[in-house]
Amino acid sequence: MKHSLAYSLSLSLALSLFTGCTPQPTPSPQIIIDPKLPVPLLNGSLSDINTIAFEWKSITDPNIAGYHVYRSDPVDNNQTLTRIATINDRFATHYVDEKLTPNTLYHYRFTSVSKEFLESNASEPIEASTLPMIAPVSFFQSIGNMPRSAKLLWRPHPNTRISGYIIDRLNVNDQKWSELKSIEGRLNAEYIDRDLKDGQVYYYRIRAITFDKLITEPSETTKVSTKPLPKEVQGITATTHLPKAIALKWDPTVVEEFSHYNIYRSSSSNGSYDYHIKLIDASFTDTTKEDGESFYYKITAVDKDGLESPMGSIVTQGSSLAKPRTPVAYDGKISAAGANLQWSKNDDRIASYTVIKTTKTSWIGRESIEINNIKETSFNDTSVQPNVGYIYQVIGVDKDGVRSLPTQGIELMHETK
Q: pLDDT value at position 24?
């Protein structure tokens, strides 16, 4: 044979291109070798990361219509050359092979093609390697324990071909990386990922991208945890024995950067809890308008970043002191000596009694006074007038001044003939 080569061309052209022997049947259209056609003479090549550029000497033969380019597949151990391009211009002297694999050795041959679609013998083989890929970002780290966010920092890439960066985040559910953000500008060095979940772990990596859209291998993975919520408030208690007040207290919350507590209140256990008050101390006395008025409470802790602990499912009920029971067995009589009232004590809370005396001044007129601090279960009113109507009611009063509901009124009148 004319040449001893470790290559074979696709389309069954190896024999015809390199030996001059009759070619085997090939797909249509069939290429016929014309050994008289000028063979391209390569000046050399220039390599980049994913491209290789070639230059050859100009062919002045007017019968030449263009050129064919053959290249080996780097994963093919047999180094078979396959046609990868046709250049339809005999005046062309340059070709750029693109989208190649970085840091890879390729083998090439060129042929000239006539206007009659005849092909020259192949040029001398030329080897060319793409350059190694630009190194990944060398320094990439994260800052954690931030409220619902993660701060990512990296060292700007020293290669001036870098136009920016791609930040990827790992989906922990399917363990797949996805592009999170594209950062323009080589000198940019930070990104803050926001709207994250509280107390969650996230994984990130960064890739550099060149002006011609080449993307480096990813950096080392960095792990970051967002700031957790303050813990749920524990040990909440509420009183039921204070007059027109409910005293709340709970276990103090131990949390870094504590700010305050929020108290939420509802009039029913399963109702809507409305914001009631903000405070610092782990205790609070709520006031009520009525005796025996109940409220339901939930309390949260809030840190300086505004993160609020869960309300929790436990409901704490408190109430102001209920009214004492109304005195019973109430009775009264009136004579010239006065009105005599008697009743029975039925609540140990009662410390004294108040008698409400209402005088009928006319058919519709009424005047009422209260006679307080009665210690006994009877009262004698000597300030009565004959033929004047009076209505008497009795109220029980405890040591805190909480009053029972009044008894039914007893109407009395001393009539004279």
A: 38
The model's pTM:
0.69
Q: What are residue 374's DSSP bridge partners?
A: 353
Q: Identify whether the C-beta of residue 266 lies closer than 8 Å to the C-beta of residue 272.
A: yes
Burial status of residue 2 (CB atoms within 10 A of its CB: 0-12, 13-18, 19 or more): exposed
Name, of 13-22, 70-79, 253-262, the range with top average pLDDT: 253-262
CA distance 51 to 108: 13
pLDDT in tens, 36-57: 999 999 999 999 999 999 999 9
- Label residue 381 exposed, middle or buried (CB < 10 Å: 0-12, 13-18, 19+): middle
The third-level CATH classification (topology) of the domain covering 8-129 is: Immunoglobulin-like (2.60.40)
Say whether 18 sits in a helix, a strand or coil. helix
Burial of 131 (0-12, 13-18, 19+ CB in 10 A): middle
Say if residues 122 and 107 touch (Cβ distance below 8 Å): no
- In this structure, whether the domain defined by 140-225 belongs to CATH 2.20.25.110 is answered with no
Contact 288, 321 (CB under 8 A): no
Q: Is the pLDDT of residue 123 over 60?
A: yes
Fold of 237-319: Immunoglobulin-like (2.60.40)
Fold of 328-413: Immunoglobulin-like (2.60.40)
